[in-house]
Amino acid sequence: MSRRSGILEFAVLGLLRESPMHGYELRKRLNTSLGVFRAFSYGTLYPCLKTLVANGWLIEESGGAREEALAAPLAGRRAKIVYRLTAEGKEHFEELLSQTGPDAYEDEHFAARFAFFGQTSRDVRMRVLEGRRSRLEERLEKMRASLARTRERLDDYTLELQRHGMESVEREVRWLNELIETERAGRDQRRPDSDGSAQQDSTSGESGGLPRHGDSSRPDPSDDTAT
C-alpha cells in the first residue's frame, strides 16, 4: 500500500466513524475538512472504498427509503450507496489512531492525524505532536545551515523565498509548542465539582482541547506551504 493511499483509507475510516455517508458526501468532507485531499478525485476515492469493503471494514447499504422513492421515477437513476463502518472497521481505525511511528510526523499524514485528534487519546496526541516538532526542528536546522552556506550565491528573490520557508517552519514549531503546553497543562482532566463529583472541563475532554484565542497566524496543518 502506498503512503498516499494509506492516508486516504485512514481518513475515510475516521469520517465514517462519525456517521455513514455516500461517496459524494465523503468526497466533500475530505475536500473541505481535510485540506490535504483538496485535489483528489472520485477515481481515487472509489477504489479505496472498494478495498475497505473487501477487507470487511465497511459495508455498502442502499440509500434510505426517501432517497429510493425520489430516485425511482427517474429513468436510469439509482439510489445512492451509503458506506457504513463495521465493528472490524472501527477496531482497525482505533488501532491506526494509536500508532505514533515516523509516518505520523510527515506533512500529509500529520495533517490527517491532526484532523482526528478529537478521537485520539491524550498520550498519543502528545507523542505525535512532539514527534512532529522534533521533525520540524531538524528540518529548520538543515535549512539554516544550507542558507548560511549559500547566502552569498543567492539573488535577492531566492534568498527571500528561503527566508519565507524558514519562517513558515518556525511558525509551525511555535504553534506546536503551544499545543504541547496545552496538553501538558491537563485541560482535558476531570476537575472536582462543588459537591465532590468529577466534572468535565468545558474547554476540553479526553478528546482534546485547544487554546481558544484569535491568533490568525496559526498554520493550517494541511497546508504544505507551512511545512
From TrEMBL:
Name of protein: PadR family transcriptional regulator
Coiled coil: 126-167
Xref: InterPro entries: Metal_resp_DNA-bind_regulator, Tscrpt_reg_PadR_N, WH-like_DNA-bd_sf, WH_DNA-bd_sf
Pfam families attached to this UniProt entry: PadR
Source species: Streptomyces sporangiiformans
Domain Transcription regulator PadR N-terminal: 12-95
Compositional bias per record (Polar residues), positions renumbered to this chain: 196-205
Biased composition (Basic and acidic residues): 182-194, 212-221
Alphabetized SUPFAM superfamilies for the sequence: Winged helix' DNA-binding domain
Region of interest (Disordered), ranges: 182-227
Alphabetic keyword roster: Coiled coil
Superkingdom in the source lineage: Bacteria
